[in-house]
């Protein structure tokens, strides 16, 4: 073998691996293994095109945590689906929204939903909002911000989120939760933000 035809040799210092690269490859590998596409090249092209499109919109895959944009994308994809979905369907929507597998598994763990049981997607989404916001109050403000349209928030989804998150957190009395939910859904009204 002639050295003239060999590829250049790089030293360790010359090779720079971006910090997000291993996580991107790991999530991509899991996607391909999970979906088992017949056309791996086409599926790969579609996966990376979606990833590039999301990043060009200012959205990034978050290894831990979830961005507001990812939550909004998930809600749009969930909206109109049956109230309860199989874990696989929720995983698929989360993956399409570029939420890391690690975060999804963490949310399933916190929600204590057993394997094989259909999950209320609104409850799953509310817990995802908690991952992004941290506290119950910040979570509810984030949910209001995402659900708001022209200064109004649909009371049903907000009331359901309040009830589920308060029950999950356990620090709010059930009487206060019931009173709050009743106030929000009084006559099926829509909350107006001022």
From TrEMBL:
The keyword Phosphoprotein is annotated on this UniProt entry: no
Locations listed in the record: Cell projection, Cilium, Flagellum
Major localization listed first in the record, in broad terms: other
Entry GO CC: motile cilium
Record's keyword terms, sorted: Cell projection, Cilium, Flagellum
PANTHER family: EF-HAND DOMAIN-CONTAINING PROTEIN, ROPPORIN-1-LIKE PROTEIN
Similarity comment: family membership: Belongs to the ropporin family.
Name of this chain's protein: RIIa domain-containing protein
């Amino acid at each position: 073998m002639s050295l003239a035809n060999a590829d250049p040799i790089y030293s360790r210092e010359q090779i720079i691996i971006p910090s997000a690269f291993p996580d991107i490859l790991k999530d991509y590998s899991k996607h391909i293994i999970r979906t088992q596409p017949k056309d791996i090249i086409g599926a790969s092209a579609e996966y990376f095109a979606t990833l590039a499109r999301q990043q060009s919109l200012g959205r990034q895959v978050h290894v831990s945590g979830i961005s507001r944009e990812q939550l909004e994308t998930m809600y749009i994809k969930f909206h109109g689906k049956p109230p309860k979905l199989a874990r696989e369907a929720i995983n698929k929507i989360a993956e399409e929204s570029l939420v890391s597998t690690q975060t999804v598994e963490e949310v399933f763990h916190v929600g204590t939903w057993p394997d094989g049981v259909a999950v209320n997607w609104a409850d799953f989404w509310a817990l995802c909002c908690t991952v992004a916001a941290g506290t119950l109050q910040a979570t509810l403000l984030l949910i209001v911000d995402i659900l708001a349209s022209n200064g109004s928030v649909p009371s049903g989804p907000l009331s359901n989120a309040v009830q589920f998150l308060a029950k999950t957190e356990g620090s709010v009395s059930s009487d206060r939760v019931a009173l709050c939910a009743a106030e929000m859904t009084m006559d099926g009204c829509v909350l107006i933000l001022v």
